[in-house]
Amino acid sequence: MEQCASVEREVDKVLQKFLTYGQHCEQSLEELLHYVGQLRAELANAALQGTPLSATLSLVMSQCCRKIKDTVQKLASDHKDIHSSVSRVGKAIDRNFDSEICGVVSDAVWDSGEKQQQILQMAIVEHLYQQGMLSVAEELCQESTLNVDLDFKQPFLELNRILEALHEQDLGPALEWAVSHRQRLLELNSSLEFKLHRLHFIRLLAGGPEKQLEALNYARHFQPFARLHQREIQVMMGSLVYLRLGLEKSPYCHLLDNSHWAEICETFTRDACSLLGLSVESPLSVSFASGCVALPVLMNIKAVIEQRQCTGVWSHKDELPIEIELGMKCWYHSVFACPILRQQTSDSNPPIKLICGHVISRDALNKLINGGKLKCPYCPMEQNPADGKRIIF
Ligand SMILES: [Zn+2]
């Protein structure tokens, strides 16, 4: 954090200088314009009277030219001064942050073949779509001649259209979507539709007593959710009592809280993504966040390896020299480590369930076969190795 603060200090200096320069620049130019304007009027006046240019006026004119030149020169040199402050920011970044990260990444990563480059571009495009930056994504597709078919784009376009409406506090498109996906949302245990109806109801309540009838009529939408959200529905019905008094002065004022809108955007994104089979965060942002956690640890390890002069320890193949804890957020799949070989199972060496129920990796199973028979290393049940079944977590 200290590093960030010291870079920020330099950035603040530049911004401050820039602001003062801008004001000073405008003021000097304004003065100059005024001065030139006056002179022009005087010259025009002299021309009108048909008198030749007086010595005083020509002196003033040459003074004016000098003044213009001086001002421009001064402004240019002040501008140059800002350049040096900007470059100080760059130096502060170099000084405070480690820029040399190539050492902890396999060189092969940067040898981008066409296929890798396409994968990277695709990841960026997906991220842009996910962030709702549709035009930027389109532009990148065009410039990189990446062919993204409509089926891929469609869910993102729909999500963004609905989210944009929600940000404008327009519930219509989201409600329409939730109603048409009701069954699948219920299977996901989602309360999205209920929350949308609730928000609509609250909005009617905010309209005061004249909206009471409309609100009561709307309450029939809660009927399918009566069992699951009984308590919340009771609260909303209770609030009707205070409608005449004004909800904002009642014990139900929390219903009008603006945080419900932020919450509904979050619920919609989460549930819609899971229904459409999309991840809430793009693979690119997950990779980036993981990298931010992992890089400092890797840099430290690299320094230690170099210090102890055992560079052969980490050959940069496909594995890291140590396990790096990325936190629960980054746990996506269950992993199975073979209890016999103490190795994580993989596609080429998958976990196999024996008929006795014990699970070992296929490599371990192959090693344990003796005379066409296999004896489970846990419960010494003898069995046919071919009876083992691959299991998938
Ligand atoms: Zn067994």
Helix % is 55-70%
Mean pLDDT: 85
Classify the secondary structure makeup into a structural class: mainly alpha
Low-confidence stretches: none
Strands ordered across the widest β-sheet:
2-1-5
Radius of gyration: 35 Å
State the end-to-end distance: 40 Å
Strand content: under 5%
The shape, in one word, is: flat
- Element order, helices and strands? HHHHHHHHHHHHEEHEEE
Number of DSSP helical runs? 13
Give me the count of strands.
5
* Biggest sheet architecture: 3 strands, antiparallel
Q: Any ligands, ions or cofactors bound here, and which?
A: zinc ion
GO molecular function, one term: zinc ion binding
InterPro entries: CRA_dom (IPR013144), CTLH/CRA (IPR024964), CTLH_C (IPR006595), Fyv10_fam (IPR045098), LisH (IPR006594), RMD5B_dRING (IPR037681), ZF_RING_GID (IPR044063), Znf-RING_euk (IPR027370)
Protein name: E3 ubiquitin-protein transferase RMND5B isoform X1
GO cellular component, one term: cytoplasm
